[in-house]
From TrEMBL:
Pfam families: ZapA (PF05164)
Gene Ontology CC annotations of this record: cell division site; cell septum; cytosol
Predominant location: cytoplasm
Assembly behavior: Homodimer. Interacts with FtsZ.
SUPFAM superfamilies per record: Cell division protein ZapA-like (SSF102829)
Localization annotation: Cytoplasm
Organism name: Pelagibacterium lentulum
UniProt-listed InterPro entries: Cell_div_ZapA-like, Cell_div_ZapA-like_sf, Cell_div_ZapA_N
Keywords: Cell cycle, Cell division, Cytoplasm, Septation
An example Gene Ontology biological process: division septum assembly
Classification of source organism: Bacteria, Pseudomonadati, Pseudomonadota, Alphaproteobacteria, Hyphomicrobiales
Keyword Cell cycle listed: yes
Function field: Activator of cell division through the inhibition of FtsZ GTPase activity, therefore promoting FtsZ assembly into bundles of protofilaments necessary for the formation of the division Z ring. It is recruited early at mid-cell but it is not essential for cell division.
Protein name, as recorded: Cell division protein ZapA
Length: 125
């Protein structure tokens, strides 16, 4: 287990994380600290706890919005996938109908060809 020192609101915190996740954890802490700095700039010194709560709520708000967008995108993907499947099924149906028509035309050509061959043999004979 690795340890990382992060700074939030001017205070250092020692945090444990999985090996290899040190940079990721440091980045998350820096991002969270930017929220606190932003609120500090906006509201001034209103207390560490209040700043931390406000920053935490802002992060959760972004998470909820991202989850909403993810659900919206999943629904959109499902609709597009359904439409794609319907188009594929229609294309398969049209292909089957075309193959059947082509088979009918081939049989008719075969019948005409046989009739022409028979007429040619009768005229020779």
């Amino acid at each position: 287990m690795a340890e990382v020192s992060v700074e939030i609101n001017g205070r250092k915190f020692r945090m444990a994380c999985e090996d290899g996740q040190e940079t990721h954890l440091s980045g998350l802490a820096a991002r969270f600290n930017r929220y606190i700095d932003e609120y500090k700039d906006t509201f001034g010194e209103i207390g560490d706890n209040r700043l931390t709560v406000m920053a935490g709520i802002a992060v959760v708000d972004e998470l909820v919005e991202a989850e909403r967008k993810l659900i919206e995108l999943k629904d959109e993907l499902a609709a597009v996938t359904k439409a794609g499947n319907e188009v594929a099924a229609e294309a398969e149906s049209m292909e089957a109908k075309f193959a059947a028509k082509l088979g009918d035309v081939a049989r008719r050509i075969e019948t005409i060809s046989t009739a022409i061959d028979a007429a040619g043999q009768e005229s020779r004979g």
